[in-house]
Write a structure and sequence with these properties.
The chain has helices spanning 3-12, 15-24, 33-40, 45-56, 85-97, and strands spanning 31-32, 61-65, 68-69, 75-76, 79-83. By secondary structure, the protein is an alpha+beta fold. The strands form two sheets. The chain has a three-stranded antiparallel β-sheet with strand order 1-5-2. Strands 3-4 form a two-stranded antiparallel sheet. Strand 3 and strand 4 form a beta hairpin.
Length: 99
C-alpha cells in the first residue's frame, strides 16, 4: 500500500478497518479470519470485514471457502478474504479525492 493510500485509509477508516485493509491489500492474497483477528487485534474479524463491505460496497471483499479438517478429523470450511478489483478502484479513488 502506498504511503498516500495508507494516510487516506488512516483518516477514513477505524484503526481495525485500516489494519484489515493493509493485510488484504496485496493483490491476490487470501487472508484467513484468524489473520484478520490478529492484525486488527479483535476477536470478531468477520464484523470488521462486514464494516468494510458497508463502506466500500457489498462486492468489495470476496469470501472464499476453503476445505480442511480440524484435529478431530471433522471437515471445516474456514473463510478466506480477498479484496476485489472493485475495492482496489474504490480505494484509489478515495486516495485521489482526499490528497
Amino acid at each position: 500500500m502506498s504511503p498516500e493510500l495508507s494516510r487516506v485509509v488512516a483518516q477514513l477508516f477505524s484503526s481495525s478497518e485500516a489494519a484489515a485493509l493493509k493485510a488484504l491489500h496485496p493483490s491476490g492474497v487470501l487472508v484467513s479470519r484468524e489473520r484478520v483477528d490478529w492484525v486488527c487485534q479483535v476477536s470478531n474479524g468477520p464484523h470488521v470485514v462486514l464494516q468494510l463491505r458497508e463502506k466500500l460496497g457489498k462486492d468489495a471483499i470476496k469470501t472464499v471457502r476453503a476445505r480442511s479438517k480440524d484435529r478431530d478429523g471433522r471437515v471445516r470450511r474456514p473463510g478466506l478474504y480477498q479484496l476485489t478489483e472493485q475495492s482496489r478502484h474504490c480505494l484509489e479513488k478515495l486516495a485521489r479525492e482526499n490528497l
